[in-house]
Design a protein that fits this description.
- Two copies of one chain form a homodimer.
- By secondary structure, chain A is an alpha/beta fold.
- Chain A has a domain of 137 residues: P-loop containing nucleotide triphosphate hydrolases (Rossmann fold, 3-Layer(aba) Sandwich), CATH 3.40.50.300.
- Chain A has eight helices and nine strands.
- In chain A, helix 5 packs antiparallel against helix 6.
- Chain A is globular, with a radius of gyration of 18 Å.
- In chain A, 35% of the residues are buried.
- The model of chain A has no long low-confidence stretch (mean pLDDT 85).
- Chains A, B: Its EC number is 2.7.4.8.
- Chains A, B: It is found in: Cytoplasm.
- Chains A, B: InterPro entries: GK/Ca_channel_bsu (IPR008145), Guanylate_kin-like_dom (IPR008144), Guanylate_kinase (IPR017665), Guanylate_kinase_CS (IPR020590), P-loop_NTPase (IPR027417).
- Chains A, B: Keywords: ATP-binding, Cytoplasm, Kinase, Nucleotide-binding, Transferase.
Chain lengths: 205, 205
Protein backbone atom coordinates (compact mmCIF):
# COMPACT_ATOMS: atom_id res chain seq x y z
CA UNK A 1 0.00 0.00 0.00
CA UNK A 2 1.15 3.49 -0.83
CA UNK A 3 2.86 5.28 2.05
CA UNK A 4 0.76 8.13 3.35
CA UNK A 5 2.83 11.32 3.64
CA UNK A 6 3.33 12.98 7.01
CA UNK A 7 1.92 16.38 7.87
CA UNK A 8 4.08 19.47 8.19
CA UNK A 9 3.01 21.46 11.26
CA UNK A 10 4.28 25.02 11.43
CA UNK A 11 4.20 26.58 14.90
CA UNK A 12 4.76 30.31 14.85
CA UNK A 13 3.70 33.51 16.57
CA UNK A 14 5.05 36.76 17.95
CA UNK A 15 8.54 36.76 19.39
CA UNK A 16 8.38 36.23 23.16
CA UNK A 17 5.07 34.34 23.11
CA UNK A 18 6.76 31.12 24.20
CA UNK A 19 7.03 29.13 20.97
CA UNK A 20 10.18 27.37 22.15
CA UNK A 21 8.68 26.39 25.51
CA UNK A 22 5.52 25.01 23.92
CA UNK A 23 7.49 23.17 21.25
CA UNK A 24 9.72 21.51 23.87
CA UNK A 25 6.68 20.50 25.95
CA UNK A 26 4.98 18.95 22.91
CA UNK A 27 8.07 16.99 21.93
CA UNK A 28 8.56 15.81 25.52
CA UNK A 29 5.08 14.36 25.99
CA UNK A 30 4.61 13.29 22.41
CA UNK A 31 3.12 9.83 22.06
CA UNK A 32 2.94 9.71 18.29
CA UNK A 33 5.19 10.05 15.27
CA UNK A 34 6.07 13.74 15.51
CA UNK A 35 9.56 14.89 14.53
CA UNK A 36 11.02 18.27 15.33
CA UNK A 37 12.84 20.06 12.57
CA UNK A 38 15.81 21.85 14.05
CA UNK A 39 16.38 25.34 12.67
CA UNK A 40 19.67 26.92 11.74
CA UNK A 41 20.41 30.35 13.22
CA UNK A 42 23.13 32.91 13.52
CA UNK A 43 21.92 34.19 16.89
CA UNK A 44 23.96 33.45 20.00
CA UNK A 45 22.89 30.43 22.09
CA UNK A 46 20.85 31.34 25.21
CA UNK A 47 21.71 29.63 28.47
CA UNK A 48 21.08 25.91 28.24
CA UNK A 49 20.68 25.81 24.46
CA UNK A 50 22.72 23.18 22.68
CA UNK A 51 23.96 23.07 19.09
CA UNK A 52 22.18 20.35 17.08
CA UNK A 53 19.44 20.04 19.70
CA UNK A 54 17.79 23.45 20.02
CA UNK A 55 19.33 24.98 16.90
CA UNK A 56 22.17 24.51 14.49
CA UNK A 57 24.23 27.56 15.45
CA UNK A 58 25.92 28.99 12.35
CA UNK A 59 28.15 31.93 11.50
CA UNK A 60 26.75 34.52 9.08
CA UNK A 61 29.11 33.21 6.39
CA UNK A 62 27.95 29.61 6.84
CA UNK A 63 24.31 30.70 6.77
CA UNK A 64 24.75 32.71 3.57
CA UNK A 65 26.34 29.68 1.90
CA UNK A 66 23.27 27.58 2.82
CA UNK A 67 21.01 30.21 1.23
CA UNK A 68 23.07 30.21 -1.96
CA UNK A 69 23.00 26.39 -2.19
CA UNK A 70 19.19 26.29 -1.77
CA UNK A 71 19.55 24.22 1.36
CA UNK A 72 16.91 26.20 3.28
CA UNK A 73 13.15 25.80 3.08
CA UNK A 74 12.79 29.29 4.49
CA UNK A 75 14.97 31.86 6.12
CA UNK A 76 14.50 35.24 7.72
CA UNK A 77 16.44 38.01 9.33
CA UNK A 78 14.92 38.90 12.67
CA UNK A 79 16.26 41.49 15.09
CA UNK A 80 19.64 41.30 13.42
CA UNK A 81 19.97 37.51 13.23
CA UNK A 82 19.28 34.89 10.58
CA UNK A 83 16.96 31.93 11.13
CA UNK A 84 16.28 29.15 8.62
CA UNK A 85 15.01 25.59 8.08
CA UNK A 86 17.23 22.98 6.38
CA UNK A 87 14.95 21.54 3.66
CA UNK A 88 16.30 18.01 3.26
CA UNK A 89 15.30 16.72 6.69
CA UNK A 90 11.74 18.04 6.26
CA UNK A 91 11.23 16.40 2.87
CA UNK A 92 12.77 13.07 3.86
CA UNK A 93 10.77 12.80 7.07
CA UNK A 94 7.42 13.67 5.48
CA UNK A 95 8.04 11.08 2.75
CA UNK A 96 8.58 8.44 5.46
CA UNK A 97 5.03 9.18 6.66
CA UNK A 98 6.14 11.04 9.78
CA UNK A 99 4.82 14.41 10.89
CA UNK A 100 7.30 17.26 11.15
CA UNK A 101 7.02 20.16 13.59
CA UNK A 102 8.62 23.45 12.60
CA UNK A 103 8.89 26.19 15.21
CA UNK A 104 9.77 29.38 13.38
CA UNK A 105 9.39 33.13 13.26
CA UNK A 106 6.43 34.65 11.43
CA UNK A 107 8.37 35.80 8.36
CA UNK A 108 9.69 32.28 7.83
CA UNK A 109 6.28 30.69 8.29
CA UNK A 110 4.84 32.64 5.40
CA UNK A 111 7.68 31.49 3.15
CA UNK A 112 6.94 27.87 4.08
CA UNK A 113 3.35 28.41 3.00
CA UNK A 114 4.41 29.15 -0.56
CA UNK A 115 6.32 25.82 -0.71
CA UNK A 116 3.94 23.69 1.41
CA UNK A 117 0.42 25.10 1.08
CA UNK A 118 -0.90 21.81 2.52
CA UNK A 119 1.04 22.34 5.76
CA UNK A 120 -0.87 23.18 8.95
CA UNK A 121 -0.15 26.68 10.23
CA UNK A 122 -0.62 27.32 13.95
CA UNK A 123 -0.32 30.82 15.37
CA UNK A 124 0.55 31.02 19.06
CA UNK A 125 -0.65 34.19 20.80
CA UNK A 126 -0.29 35.60 24.29
CA UNK A 127 -3.45 36.18 26.39
CA UNK A 128 -2.84 39.86 25.80
CA UNK A 129 -0.21 42.08 24.34
CA UNK A 130 0.39 43.43 27.85
CA UNK A 131 1.33 39.99 29.03
CA UNK A 132 3.61 39.62 26.06
CA UNK A 133 5.47 42.75 27.09
CA UNK A 134 5.74 41.52 30.68
CA UNK A 135 7.17 38.22 29.53
CA UNK A 136 9.78 39.92 27.40
CA UNK A 137 10.81 42.22 30.27
CA UNK A 138 10.94 39.35 32.75
CA UNK A 139 13.16 37.30 30.50
CA UNK A 140 15.65 40.07 31.25
CA UNK A 141 17.90 39.32 28.32
CA UNK A 142 16.83 42.36 26.29
CA UNK A 143 17.62 46.05 26.61
CA UNK A 144 14.57 48.35 26.88
CA UNK A 145 14.78 49.64 23.32
CA UNK A 146 14.81 46.02 22.16
CA UNK A 147 11.61 45.33 24.14
CA UNK A 148 9.88 48.22 22.39
CA UNK A 149 11.14 46.98 19.07
CA UNK A 150 9.72 43.53 19.80
CA UNK A 151 6.35 44.96 20.87
CA UNK A 152 5.99 46.80 17.59
CA UNK A 153 6.92 43.62 15.74
CA UNK A 154 4.34 41.67 17.77
CA UNK A 155 1.51 44.02 16.81
CA UNK A 156 2.43 43.57 13.17
CA UNK A 157 2.65 39.82 13.61
CA UNK A 158 -0.81 39.58 15.14
CA UNK A 159 -2.09 41.28 12.02
CA UNK A 160 -0.49 38.37 10.15
CA UNK A 161 -2.59 35.86 12.12
CA UNK A 162 -5.01 35.95 9.20
CA UNK A 163 -2.60 33.84 7.12
CA UNK A 164 -2.76 30.93 9.58
CA UNK A 165 -5.11 27.96 9.95
CA UNK A 166 -5.34 27.86 13.74
CA UNK A 167 -4.85 30.26 16.65
CA UNK A 168 -3.78 28.90 20.03
CA UNK A 169 -3.51 31.10 23.13
CA UNK A 170 -0.45 30.29 25.20
CA UNK A 171 -1.99 30.96 28.62
CA UNK A 172 -0.78 27.69 30.13
CA UNK A 173 1.83 25.60 28.35
CA UNK A 174 -0.02 22.34 29.09
CA UNK A 175 -3.30 23.66 27.70
CA UNK A 176 -1.56 24.96 24.60
CA UNK A 177 0.00 21.50 24.09
CA UNK A 178 -3.39 19.79 24.48
CA UNK A 179 -4.83 22.08 21.84
CA UNK A 180 -1.97 21.55 19.41
CA UNK A 181 -2.27 17.78 19.87
CA UNK A 182 -6.00 18.02 19.09
CA UNK A 183 -5.21 20.01 15.94
CA UNK A 184 -2.73 17.36 14.75
CA UNK A 185 -5.22 14.53 15.41
CA UNK A 186 -8.00 16.43 13.64
CA UNK A 187 -5.80 17.26 10.65
CA UNK A 188 -5.06 13.57 10.12
CA UNK A 189 -8.83 13.04 9.89
CA UNK A 190 -9.47 15.73 7.29
CA UNK A 191 -11.24 14.29 4.31
CA UNK A 192 -8.72 15.74 1.86
CA UNK A 193 -5.95 13.66 3.44
CA UNK A 194 -7.69 10.26 3.51
CA UNK A 195 -10.46 10.14 0.95
CA UNK A 196 -8.34 8.15 -1.48
CA UNK A 197 -8.04 5.27 1.01
CA UNK A 198 -11.78 4.76 1.00
CA UNK A 199 -12.07 5.08 -2.73
CA UNK A 200 -9.63 2.16 -2.88
CA UNK A 201 -11.71 0.16 -0.39
CA UNK A 202 -14.68 0.43 -2.73
CA UNK A 203 -12.59 -0.74 -5.69
CA UNK A 204 -11.33 -3.82 -3.84
CA UNK A 205 -14.62 -5.27 -2.64
CA UNK B 1 -18.50 41.29 24.88
CA UNK B 2 -20.32 39.82 21.93
CA UNK B 3 -21.41 36.22 22.48
CA UNK B 4 -19.44 33.82 20.32
CA UNK B 5 -21.77 31.47 18.44
CA UNK B 6 -21.60 27.73 19.05
CA UNK B 7 -20.47 25.28 16.39
CA UNK B 8 -22.88 22.92 14.65
CA UNK B 9 -21.32 19.45 14.42
CA UNK B 10 -22.97 17.08 11.97
CA UNK B 11 -22.19 13.40 12.56
CA UNK B 12 -23.26 11.19 9.67
CA UNK B 13 -22.23 8.11 7.74
CA UNK B 14 -23.62 4.92 6.21
CA UNK B 15 -26.58 3.28 7.90
CA UNK B 16 -25.34 0.59 10.29
CA UNK B 17 -21.93 2.21 10.92
CA UNK B 18 -22.83 2.95 14.54
CA UNK B 19 -23.65 6.66 14.48
CA UNK B 20 -26.11 6.29 17.37
CA UNK B 21 -23.65 4.37 19.54
CA UNK B 22 -20.87 6.89 18.96
CA UNK B 23 -23.22 9.82 19.55
CA UNK B 24 -24.41 8.36 22.87
CA UNK B 25 -20.83 7.70 23.97
CA UNK B 26 -19.79 11.28 23.15
CA UNK B 27 -22.72 12.77 25.02
CA UNK B 28 -22.08 10.50 28.02
CA UNK B 29 -18.45 11.42 28.49
CA UNK B 30 -18.81 14.99 27.33
CA UNK B 31 -16.95 17.47 29.52
CA UNK B 32 -17.73 20.59 27.55
CA UNK B 33 -20.73 22.52 26.30
CA UNK B 34 -22.07 20.08 23.69
CA UNK B 35 -25.81 19.73 23.17
CA UNK B 36 -27.46 16.92 21.27
CA UNK B 37 -30.19 17.85 18.82
CA UNK B 38 -32.91 15.20 18.94
CA UNK B 39 -34.27 14.21 15.54
CA UNK B 40 -37.88 13.60 14.62
CA UNK B 41 -38.67 10.32 12.84
CA UNK B 42 -41.57 8.21 11.66
CA UNK B 43 -39.73 4.92 12.11
CA UNK B 44 -40.77 2.58 14.90
CA UNK B 45 -38.76 2.80 18.16
CA UNK B 46 -36.15 0.04 18.56
CA UNK B 47 -35.88 -1.70 21.89
CA UNK B 48 -34.83 0.71 24.62
CA UNK B 49 -35.37 3.85 22.56
CA UNK B 50 -37.45 6.54 24.26
CA UNK B 51 -39.55 9.31 22.76
CA UNK B 52 -38.03 12.74 23.41
CA UNK B 53 -34.66 11.22 24.35
CA UNK B 54 -33.47 9.21 21.35
CA UNK B 55 -35.95 10.62 18.85
CA UNK B 56 -39.23 12.43 18.68
CA UNK B 57 -41.36 9.62 17.28
CA UNK B 58 -44.00 11.05 14.93
CA UNK B 59 -46.76 9.72 12.70
CA UNK B 60 -46.42 10.36 8.96
CA UNK B 61 -49.18 12.96 9.20
CA UNK B 62 -47.46 14.82 12.03
CA UNK B 63 -44.15 14.76 10.17
CA UNK B 64 -45.66 16.13 6.97
CA UNK B 65 -47.22 18.98 8.94
CA UNK B 66 -43.76 19.86 10.32
CA UNK B 67 -42.36 19.94 6.77
CA UNK B 68 -45.16 22.24 5.59
CA UNK B 69 -44.66 24.61 8.53
CA UNK B 70 -40.88 24.86 7.84
CA UNK B 71 -40.13 23.49 11.27
CA UNK B 72 -37.36 21.18 10.00
CA UNK B 73 -33.76 22.11 9.24
CA UNK B 74 -33.53 19.02 7.08
CA UNK B 75 -35.55 15.91 6.46
CA UNK B 76 -35.14 12.74 4.45
CA UNK B 77 -36.97 9.58 3.59
CA UNK B 78 -34.76 6.57 4.25
CA UNK B 79 -35.76 2.93 3.79
CA UNK B 80 -39.40 3.95 3.92
CA UNK B 81 -39.23 6.22 6.97
CA UNK B 82 -38.90 9.96 7.50
CA UNK B 83 -36.13 11.55 9.58
CA UNK B 84 -35.76 15.27 10.29
CA UNK B 85 -34.20 17.94 12.53
CA UNK B 86 -36.39 20.50 14.33
CA UNK B 87 -34.74 23.83 13.43
CA UNK B 88 -35.64 26.02 16.41
CA UNK B 89 -33.60 24.14 19.00
CA UNK B 90 -30.51 24.24 16.78
CA UNK B 91 -30.69 27.98 16.16
CA UNK B 92 -31.45 28.89 19.77
CA UNK B 93 -28.66 26.74 21.18
CA UNK B 94 -26.00 28.00 18.75
CA UNK B 95 -26.95 31.60 19.54
CA UNK B 96 -26.40 30.88 23.24
CA UNK B 97 -22.80 29.99 22.34
CA UNK B 98 -23.26 26.25 22.82
CA UNK B 99 -22.17 23.59 20.36
CA UNK B 100 -24.87 21.39 18.86
CA UNK B 101 -24.35 17.78 17.76
CA UNK B 102 -26.60 16.45 15.00
CA UNK B 103 -26.54 12.72 14.25
CA UNK B 104 -28.31 12.22 10.96
CA UNK B 105 -28.47 10.19 7.77
CA UNK B 106 -26.35 11.20 4.80
CA UNK B 107 -29.17 12.73 2.74
CA UNK B 108 -30.08 15.00 5.64
CA UNK B 109 -26.49 16.03 6.29
CA UNK B 110 -26.14 17.43 2.79
CA UNK B 111 -29.29 19.52 3.26
CA UNK B 112 -27.82 20.97 6.47
CA UNK B 113 -24.75 22.00 4.49
CA UNK B 114 -26.83 24.29 2.29
CA UNK B 115 -28.22 26.06 5.38
CA UNK B 116 -25.11 25.94 7.61
CA UNK B 117 -22.03 25.87 5.36
CA UNK B 118 -19.94 26.81 8.43
CA UNK B 119 -21.00 23.63 10.24
CA UNK B 120 -18.45 20.85 10.78
CA UNK B 121 -19.29 17.70 8.83
CA UNK B 122 -17.95 14.41 10.17
CA UNK B 123 -18.35 11.19 8.20
CA UNK B 124 -18.23 8.00 10.24
CA UNK B 125 -17.06 4.93 8.30
CA UNK B 126 -16.69 1.23 9.12
CA UNK B 127 -13.20 -0.35 8.94
CA UNK B 128 -14.45 -2.09 5.83
CA UNK B 129 -17.67 -2.55 3.97
CA UNK B 130 -17.53 -6.25 4.87
CA UNK B 131 -17.61 -5.36 8.53
CA UNK B 132 -20.53 -3.04 7.86
CA UNK B 133 -22.49 -5.94 6.39
CA UNK B 134 -21.63 -8.15 9.36
CA UNK B 135 -22.83 -5.51 11.78
CA UNK B 136 -26.12 -5.11 10.00
CA UNK B 137 -26.70 -8.88 9.95
CA UNK B 138 -25.78 -9.21 13.63
CA UNK B 139 -28.20 -6.50 14.62
CA UNK B 140 -30.77 -9.06 13.47
CA UNK B 141 -33.53 -6.53 13.07
CA UNK B 142 -33.48 -6.57 9.26
CA UNK B 143 -34.64 -9.07 6.68
CA UNK B 144 -31.99 -10.23 4.18
CA UNK B 145 -33.28 -8.15 1.27
CA UNK B 146 -33.10 -5.12 3.58
CA UNK B 147 -29.45 -5.90 4.34
CA UNK B 148 -28.62 -5.94 0.61
CA UNK B 149 -30.53 -2.70 0.18
CA UNK B 150 -28.52 -1.10 2.97
CA UNK B 151 -25.21 -2.33 1.51
CA UNK B 152 -25.97 -0.71 -1.82
CA UNK B 153 -26.90 2.50 -0.02
CA UNK B 154 -23.64 2.35 1.97
CA UNK B 155 -21.52 2.14 -1.18
CA UNK B 156 -23.27 5.21 -2.51
CA UNK B 157 -22.87 6.99 0.79
CA UNK B 158 -19.12 6.38 0.89
CA UNK B 159 -18.96 8.10 -2.48
CA UNK B 160 -20.60 11.05 -0.69
CA UNK B 161 -17.73 11.22 1.81
CA UNK B 162 -16.20 13.83 -0.46
CA UNK B 163 -18.75 16.41 0.77
CA UNK B 164 -17.55 16.14 4.38
CA UNK B 165 -14.81 17.87 6.34
CA UNK B 166 -13.57 14.91 8.38
CA UNK B 167 -13.60 11.12 8.13
CA UNK B 168 -13.54 9.03 11.32
CA UNK B 169 -13.28 5.23 11.27
CA UNK B 170 -15.56 3.62 13.84
CA UNK B 171 -13.30 0.70 14.72
CA UNK B 172 -13.59 1.22 18.47
CA UNK B 173 -16.26 3.51 19.88
CA UNK B 174 -13.84 5.05 22.42
CA UNK B 175 -11.26 5.84 19.74
CA UNK B 176 -13.92 7.35 17.50
CA UNK B 177 -15.06 9.54 20.42
CA UNK B 178 -11.48 10.68 21.12
CA UNK B 179 -11.12 11.68 17.48
CA UNK B 180 -14.41 13.56 17.36
CA UNK B 181 -13.50 15.40 20.56
CA UNK B 182 -10.18 16.40 18.97
CA UNK B 183 -12.03 17.68 15.90
CA UNK B 184 -14.34 19.82 18.05
CA UNK B 185 -11.41 21.28 20.02
CA UNK B 186 -9.49 21.99 16.81
CA UNK B 187 -12.48 23.60 15.11
CA UNK B 188 -12.82 26.06 18.00
CA UNK B 189 -9.21 27.07 17.31
CA UNK B 190 -9.68 27.69 13.59
CA UNK B 191 -8.58 31.17 12.71
CA UNK B 192 -11.83 31.95 10.87
CA UNK B 193 -13.76 31.50 14.13
CA UNK B 194 -11.61 33.64 16.45
CA UNK B 195 -9.61 36.14 14.44
CA UNK B 196 -12.04 38.96 15.28
CA UNK B 197 -11.24 38.58 19.01
CA UNK B 198 -7.60 39.40 18.42
CA UNK B 199 -8.36 42.25 16.09
CA UNK B 200 -10.33 43.73 19.00
CA UNK B 201 -7.40 43.16 21.38
CA UNK B 202 -5.22 45.32 19.14
CA UNK B 203 -7.83 48.08 19.07
CA UNK B 204 -8.14 48.19 22.86
CA UNK B 205 -4.49 48.46 23.84
Amino acid sequence: MEQEKGILIVLSGPSGVGKGTVRKAIMKRDDHKLHYSISATTRKPREGERDGVDYFFKSKEEFQRMIQNNELLEWAEYVGNYYGTPVKYVNDTLTEGKDVLLEIEVQGALQVKTHFPEAVFIFLVPPSLAELQERIVNRGTEAEHMVKHRMLAAREEIELMDKYDYVVVNDKVDDACDKIKAIIIAEHLRKERIYYKYKKMLEVE
